[in-house]
Structure prediction request, 425 residues.
Amino acid sequence: MNPTVLIAPSGFKESLLPWQAAQAMARGVQQAWPEARVLQLPLVDGGEGFAEGLARATGGGVEPVQVCGPVGQRLAAHLGWLGPASGRSRTAVVEVAAAAGLRWVPQDRRNPLHTTSRGVGELIRAALDLGAERILLGCGDSGINDGGAGMVQALGARLTDADGHDIGPGAEGLLQLDRIDLTGLDPRLQRVPIHAAVNPGNRLLGPRGVARVHGPQKGASAEQVERLEQALQRLADQVLRATGVDVASVPGAGASGGLGAGLHGLLGGVLCPRYQVVLQHLDLDGLLDRCDLVITGEGQLDDQTPNGKVPAEVARRAKQRGLPVLAVAGAIGPGAASTLACGIDAYLSAVRHPCDGQEALDHAERWLTDATEQALRLVGIGLGLGQRLAATKKGQSVKTAPDVVVPERGIEPPTFSLRMSCSTD
Prediction:
């Protein structure tokens, strides 16, 4: 019997979208084990690829939209529409990363005190203009830390300083926030529900709050991190004053630089655990029931991976079925060993030699294929050794491992099996 391998990675931030990563891994599996059956399930967690991923999975489509980018540039973004397989009518899928992702912030302008979520509000408004009856919002991979202030301003709210002037963009503007006026909000928001896919562990404030955990990843210095924290505290105070909602205590309010707080507290959006949203449309559990080995991955495997990221969720569900799990990452960061407790059995980096970040990004697809191939060859050695030891104890001899075939170079690439079953709630 030939092994069935499930490939279920997330995207590799600023490099490969989830389906590109899955295809690269699939090629590596087939180069090592040509007779293996390969199942691909690219997974989205709310970040890059969320809108297109859910649209693909349900037979929907993607629509281009011009918006304001995180540093004020005009940006060619997009929103998705769930298709007929979702069982939902006219559901728009909005992705924070499409309008305010870190990839859209130039390296020399990575200061989250100045980046804005305005483009996210423009995407929501475009969805309303196009007749959305429900909006799914994916939070992740953002380059912002303005608490959703730009988003709600784009939808008609006024955020003003002590003199009654509109505050400026970014967290720097939040430091001047004195009053929130929601009377001008787009009235369609009253009848179109917004459900956001968030990591419930993303807190707004405190030692594990979004400014301190993710601010440095977005370019903030230690001093700027403290100003970001002060800005989000001021937002939380003013939201409580304007609406009576204490966003500081809401799980997931720190999502996308605190955009979860603005969405929930000012727009009435519902913050949902990300996999509760995603796995309504992607049949991860069904595919796990059909496989023998699981390969997952992400851009960097580190101590943040166990906090709700794709490899940890895949490994957790795989271990409920006793399946072995291998993770191939773009980089191995501090604390990566903590992922072993999540159910990942082994992990490795796709980077083949010391290099700068740009070289790794430029070669990401090929290196990911090669790393997956080498990982499967090592698995094959283990299978062969295990069989040899077992046979030796029984006084038998064995020459090769079962179902592990060394390929002839130049074979035609196989057609990969892709199955994304969908369910409705």
